[in-house]
Design goal:
- It contains 21 helices and no strands.
- It is mostly helical.
- The chain has helices at residues 16-24, 78-91, 105-124, 131-145, 175-190, 196-199, 205-214, 220-236, 241-259, 265-277, 285-295, 308-321, 326-335, 342-357, 361-379, 384-391, 397-405, 407-424, 428-444, 446-483, 500-506.
- The chain is 60% helix and 0% strand.
């Protein structure tokens, strides 16, 4: 249950019921979304994301001139409580403009107190909700929650390229009402009085899609509620489970391959992390395809830092459930490995270590060659955090065990990088860690280490000889060009071709 404190939102509780709600409703976190600015009407189609704007009565509701508080539940006989509950639901279908705090203050307070009473009524468990009542409840929720979200405040700042954890979130001015409506929906979903077989007709696929649309809200408090509610819907309405997974899939596809802009990826991944944790073994092919087609490509967007922690958890859950997926995951990471983004590279190395923790020797052997070629490049990175994080892999006992079993293949792949770091790396911490890893290999297999060192020196001598020949060729070319400078005769110099950098110089690049 989301813990949300509304004490600061309630100035004058009008009854004992209100007081009990204040103590039972708790408050989550912060981000934006307006509530239909300029409208005080009920949407003609509560399920639609965008509603109409009108000042007259809608769906039989009284206009604002007759917007008066209804009796308290404690003041009417038990036989009339359900009828009063429905009337209060209808009253709360009226949506106000919260961009102007001075507008309709009395009516807003009446609605807020009524919403609190509704939450308390649902929580009290006054009997099974009939189909008609469930329909009215979902209509009220739809009228208040399903709205057009305002344009992103970071639309022009390219959120995909600049992620600032300290940036102040945008707060929805309508939250004093939205929060209570979300609490009402949460209590409705988890209530034992809600029959899932009946409620699924109203909390249907269309309703779920509208909830998923709201995950793009910039207000983190709203996304936190949505995360909890959708997870409870997934748990209670088993018939909706495949649809929910598919709908989230589609959101990921659009985010990865089209927009790279969405505020709720982290929250949806949190839901999926819990879902994946409950997958039965052996894993269905559908779930493996979801890993390959949606989760692994989520490493591609530039803003991966915004949701990487949740993504990494989902990925490692798959590997822990089926160790044969380790090769697929590691090759996927290598496919999307960043080239120029060092902070993203550090995130990838963090995730790689978590995946390797759950990797068995047989799967490790299948991907170790491309993997350690990439790690060698990381070892030589001029960004010290990347090089340092790559060297930290040897602090992990399981990784060291895997490497030790395959040292004949791995050490030749990374020996050159270790030698270059030992000689030239500018950062002292990286230099010290490199010495430790070299010492570990030399103690692990002295003969192999010496063989790699001999091979490195031979390669170094060969590269020096090649470079000297290139220099000689370059000088011959210069001399020949100087003697033929005044004629149009072509210059042909036999010998080794110039290096790539020399060719660039020759063509004036």
């Amino acid at each position: 249950m989301v813990n949300i404190k509304l004490k600061q939102l309630i100035r004058k509780p009008s009854s004992r019921n209100d007081s009990s709600i204040e103590s039972s409703i708790g408050a989550p976190a912060p981000h934006p979304g307006g509530i239909m600015p300029g409208s005080t009407s009920v949407p003609s189609n509560p399920g639609s994301r965008s509603s109409s704007s009108s000042s007259g009565p809608v769906n039989g509701l009284l206009p604002l001139t007759n917007f008066e508080p209804l009796p308290l539940f404690r003041d009417v006989p038990s036989s009339e409580k359900q009828s009063l509950f429905v009337k209060k639901l209808h009253l709360c279908c009226c949506v106000f403009d919260f961009t102007d705090p001075s507008k309709h203050t009395r009516e807003k307070e009446i609605k807020r107190q009524t919403l609190l009473e509704l939450v308390d009524y649902v929580t009290s468990g006054s009997g099974k909700f009939t189909e008609n009542v469930l329909e009215d409840m979902t209509k009220m929720v739809s009228a208040n929650l399903f709205r057009s979200l305002p344009p992103s405040s970071r639309e022009n700042s390219a959120v995909s390229e600049s992620f600032d954890e300290d940036e102040e979130p945008v707060m929805d001015p309508a939250w004093p009402h939205l929060q209570i409506v979300y609490e009402f929906l949460l209590r409705l979903v988890v209530s034992t009085e809600t029959d899932a077989k009946v409620a699924k007709r109203y909390i249907d696929h269309f309703f779920v899609l509208r909830l998923l649309d709201l995950f793009d809200s910039e207000d983190p408090r709203e996304r936190e509620y949505l995360k909890t509610i959708l997870h409870r819907i997934y748990g209670k309405f088993m018939v909706h489970r495949p649809f929910i997974r598919k709908a989230i899939n589609n959101i990921f596809y659009r985010f990865i391959f089209e927009t790279e802009k969405h505020n709720g990826i982290a929250e949806m991944l949190e839901i999926l992390g819990s879902i994946i944790n409950g997958f039965a073994l052996p894993l269905k092919e559908e779930h493996k395809l979801f890993l390959v087609r949606a989760l692994v490509p989520l490493h591609k967007p530039k803003c991966v830092a915004m949701y990487h922690q949740q993504l990494s958890y989902c990925i490692t859950q798959f590997v822990e459930k089926d160790c044969k997926l380790a090769d697929t995951v590691i090759r996927g990471l290598l496919k999307y490995w960043p080239v120029t983004n060092s902070q993203k590279e550090v995130l990838f190395l963090n995730e790689l270590e978590e995946v390797l923790e759950a990797t068995q020797a047989s799967e490790f052997e299948r991907c170790m060659v491309p993997l350690f070629r990439q790690i060698a490049r990381c070892l030589n990175s001029s960004h010290f955090q990347v090089a340092e994080r790559a060297l930290f892999l040897w602090n992990n006992d399981h990784v060291v065990s895997l490497v030790a079993q395959n040292r004949q293949t791995i050490l030749p792949l990374i020996f050159s990088a270790l030698e270059m770091n030992n000689r030239n790396h500018w950062n002292q911490a990286v230099h010290g860690l490199t010495c430790n890893v070299r010492k570990m290999f030399s103690e692990m297999d002295p003969e192999l280490f010496q063989e790699c060192q001999r091979k490195f020196q031979e390669d170094e001598e060969k590269s020096k000889g090649i470079e000297e020949k290139r220099e000689i060729t370059w000088k011959r070319l210069e001399a020949a060009a100087a003697t033929k400078a005044v004629s149009s005769e072509a210059v042909l110099v036999m010998g080794m071709a110039p290096s790539f950098n020399q060719q660039r110089t020759m063509v004036g690049v």
